[in-house]
Specification:
The protein is an alpha+beta fold. The chain has 15 helices and 28 strands.
Length: 475
């Protein structure tokens, strides 16, 4: 969902698409027309909207209570406001949240409800939630909390739950995963037939599938991101064999004519939106043009602009900005405070390190590798001093320049990083925190990167950038 509450016009058209009022109308319509309906969500209800950020997810859970899904699994962004706040939101929810593999490590106790069995028209349906490794990133500083790291461990957890709780009467078993499409495929390969998993309904990678993928007799699907579309499975289950004997999958566009909008929900959401608009409607800056960020795996004009601004603020040679921290596909030319904070919602800190050229090459080799550009990896935008060329065929870095000069192994370079990537530097950058501090002490430049970037934009009018080949990939 990612806080995609309101309908929007399609590019180049006046036709509205998406929004929870119309999606709710469609769900209500299907619940009325069909006898046996399950509405499920595979994580990331939170984040992506200023309505969500302003109210720290409370508004989202209130809205989700109105939608009343039958089951929801956690995604990595449910942890964005901290673990204690997530536990508060979970108590607010009038719908079941299932996640099997988050543990209080000391006691070996699961933090959330691991599974749910619903009886629908005499059929028992089991739903199990499985989470992405990225949750570990969000709660890394909380030593009490742990999760499974490998897909093998996640598969083993599914086996434990189905062995312990899946009796002979369970007719359908569904995994609600938030690990990404490619990882869903690998997970399906690891599932034993005896566990009886029939379907994986996934999230995290925002993959849109026109038809499900079948691996190991498990149907795998996703329905993208936001509320522009919803995935619909019509399935027939055999009560004797506890298996799916026929199915039909559709991606249903949420657009006018599909159903009557849920007017009461529309009014409820607009009550939040009105407050947000009143508070954040002021224009903070003007760009020379619309700055875009269509994909996190590629260099973008908006990413270049933010990276350059933060490099100037941090006075560093190299600035790495996580592509995923930029939440809007376009921004400008006139930028309101609402637009900006929706686009860049994370209040993290910014620090500067001193690294060697050899370390810098290792970092770029790691972040530019092909397997990191699969919609599940952690990709970056870089500042204008950097030119990096990577060969996919040679699987290596061809060249790396800073300020128009080749990066030299023994030379020292200043590197700007945001806190989230510092905490997870070993996994994301292939360099440990200890290695980052070998050459010199780090310096905290700002305690809120969101606020210093906002201040920069207010004081730099009519700026803009283009995608100009800072990161080049050779096939």
């Amino acid at each position: 969902m990612h806080g995609d509450f309101l309908s929007e016009a399609r590019s180049g058209s006046d036709k509205l698409i998406g929004g929870l009022a119309l999606l709710s109308g469609y769900v209500n319509k299907i619940r009325h027309e069909e006898k046996n309906v399950l509405y499920v969500i595979s994580g990331d209800m939170l984040q992506g909207s200023l309505i969500d950020t302003e109210y720290q997810g409370i508004s989202t859970i209130e809205i989700m209570n109105y939608l009343s899904p039958d089951a929801v699994s956690l995604g990595n962004h449910e942890f964005d406001y901290g673990l204690p706040h997530l536990l508060f939101l979970e108590k607010m929810a009038n719908f079941p949240i299932v996640t099997a593999n988050i543990y209080i490590k000391k006691y070996g106790k699961r933090l959330m409800r691991p599974y749910l069995i619903l009886n629908i028209d005499g059929f028992d349906i089991m739903l199990i939630g499985i989470l992405t490794e990225k949750v570990i990133d969000s709660v890394k500083k909380d030593e009490l909390i742990g999760s499974f790291i490998s897909l093998e461990d996640a598969a083993h957890e599914v086996g434990i739950i189905t062995d312990a709780y899946k009796n002979d009467d369970v007719d359908l078993t569904i995994l609600l995963t938030h690990i990404g499409y490619e990882s869903d495929i690998e997970l399906a390969k690891l599932l034993r037939p005896e566990w009886g998993v029939d379907m994986i309904i996934g999230g995290h990678s925002h993959t849109i599938l026109q038809q499900p993928t079948t691996i190991n007799n498990v149907l795998i699907t996703q329905a993208g991101v936001g509320t522009d579309q919803i995935g619909r499975f019509d399935i027939t289950v055999d009560d004797d064999t506890n298996s799916i004997i026929s199915w039909k999958w559709q991606l249903i566009p949420i657009e006018g004519g599909i159903a009557e909008p849920d007017i009461k929900l529309k009014e409820y959401i607009e009550s939040f939106a009105t407050e947000i608009d009143h508070k954040y409607s002021t224009i903070i800056c003007k760009f020379t043009d619309v700055m875009t960020h269509p994909k996190r795996e590629v260099e973008t004009s908006l990413g270049n602009l933010f990276a350059d601004a933060l490099a100037e603020i941090a006075e560093c040679d190299v600035m790495l900005v996580g592509s995923g921290s930029i939440r809007s596909k376009e921004l400008g030319p006139a930028v309101t405070l609402k637009d900006y904070r929706t686009c860049f919602p994370f209040k993290d800190y910014l620090s500067r390190f001193v690294v060697t050229g050899a370390q810098l090459k290792r970092i770029f080799t790691h972040i530019m590798r092909p397997e990191n550009r699969n919609s599940e990896g952690e990709c970056y935008q870089v500042n204008g001093r950097i030119r990096a060329v990577y060969s996919d065929s040679a699987h290596g870095l061809i060249s790396l320049q800073s300020g128009g000069k080749p990066v030299v192994d023994d030379n020292k370079y200043s590197l700007g990083l945001i806190g989230y990537h510092i905490s997870n530097s070993a996994a994301y950058l292939n360099i440990t925190n200890e290695e980052l501090l070998i050459n010199d002490k780090s310096k905290v430049i700002a305690t809120s990167v969101q606020e210093v970037l906002e201040e920069y934009l207010r004081n730099h009018q009519n700026i803009g950038r283009k995608a100009e080949g800072r990161l080049t990939y050779l096939a």
